[in-house]
Specification:
This protein has 319 residues and is mainly alpha-helical. Helix content is 54%, strand content 5%. It contains nine helices and eight strands. It has helices at 23-45, 52-77, 83-86, 108-126, 130-155, 182-191, 208-228, 237-253, 287-312; strands spanning 5-6, 95-96, 99-100, 169-170, 177-178, 200-201, 267-268, 284-285. The strands form four sheets. A two-stranded parallel ribbon has the order 1-4. Strands 2-3 form a two-stranded antiparallel ribbon. The chain is globular.
Length: 319
């Protein structure tokens, strides 16, 4: 009896075989489009007076900032080999060995930073409130993450850590482990995977992409859109709660996601010596968790500062 799921063979990262169009890119477009619809819904519902042209221009600035920031962070913080530092012109070059490969690595936290910079620049240029725009966007953005993470799953990338749970997925391109190790044989025996002594075994992993789609996407959006948005008391409140909420969701999800093999754990306080692909300690912290913890801290600090600003401006009364 097999207690695992094989990655579906009918799933392909290419929309049309032979053409460089990937479902991951399509999912990005769906996420952007859905975010735009939700932002415009708020603009019309609250009669904020912004036109489609205003919002389209703002979207363009934030999307450009997002893509630039996501790629730069990935090259700077997730490449311990130093390749991009030695070859900075390759950061935005989508070809390798004469083939189009796209951008190999995008960082969410870099994308967030870039989007904020792009939004700030546009709002300053147009003399409109950045906090008002940020609140509109952060109420809408999380639902788009759902599609981005589904895109990761379709690509068969960013897989989770090894698991013996019956919903564990065997990803075809995930690293294999030597059956010489006792823990590898134990998991293989538990889930019903055969192996040869000393051979390499592809073990099932948490479908962490789908966990993140549920936590960072659907759950966070429901909380922000249906609960917190209705209680937004001052400009910047939604932005602050978004930072706290996403940071917490991502921090939890990272316990199920395998850290980048080149980086491992940024903080490794667990005593066990198993590889990073196996969960064995809450005290082992990945790069993603470190950035997420900083997001939570920033959200709490900004909530305090934005509230203080609102009191000083007379937007809300001091309590």
């Amino acid at each position: 009896m097999h207690l695992y799921i094989n990655f579906p063979s009918w799933i392909s990262p290419l929309v049309i075989p032979g053409l460089p169009i990937r479902w991951y890119s399509v999912m990005y477009l769906v996420a952007f489009g859905l975010t735009y619809v939700l932002v415009m819904y708020q603009v019309r519902k609250d009669d904020l007076g912004f036109t489609h042209d205003d919002m389209a221009s703002l979207f363009m600035w934030t999307i450009i900032g997002l893509l630039l920031g996501a790629r730069l962070f990935a090259a700077l913080f997730y490449d311990p080999t130093g390749y991009y530092l030695r070859n900075p012109w390759m950061v935005f070059w989508p070809f390798r060995s004469g083939r189009f490969v796209g951008f190999q690595g995008m960082s969410y936290h870099g994308g967030l930073t870039g989007a904020v910079v792009g939004g700030l620049l546009y709002c300053r240029k147009q003399k409109i409130s950045f906090l008002q725009m940020a609140d509109l966007f952060t109420a809408a953005i999380p639902l788009g993450y759902t599609f981005g993470r589904i895109g990761n799953f379709i690509n068969g990338e960013l897989w989770g850590r090894v698991t013996a749970m019956p919903w564990g997925v065997v990803f075809p391109f995930a690293p294999r482990f030597s059956a010489r190790h006792g823990w590898v044989r134990d998991i293989a025996d538990t889930v019903g995977i055969s192996y040869e002594t000393g051979g390499m075994v592809n073990l099932p992993r948490h479908p962490s992409q789908l966990y993140e789609a549920a936590l960072e996407g659907i759950l966070l959006w429901v909380v922000l859109w249906f609960i917190i948005r209705k209680r937004s008391a001052y400009p910047g409140f939604m932005l602050s709660m978004y930072l706290v909420g996403y940071g917490a969701a991502r921090f939890i999800a990272e316990y199920f996601r395998e850290p980048d093999s080149e980086l491992g754990f940024i903080i490794a306080l667990g005593r066990e010596q198993e590889p990073a692909a196996v969960f064995h300690s809450l005290l082992n912290i990945s790069m993603g968790q470190l950035f997420s913890a900083l997001m939570i801290a920033a959200g709490v600090l900004l909530a305090f500062l934005f509230k203080r600003r609102a009191v000083m401006m007379g937007i809300i009364s001091k309590r």
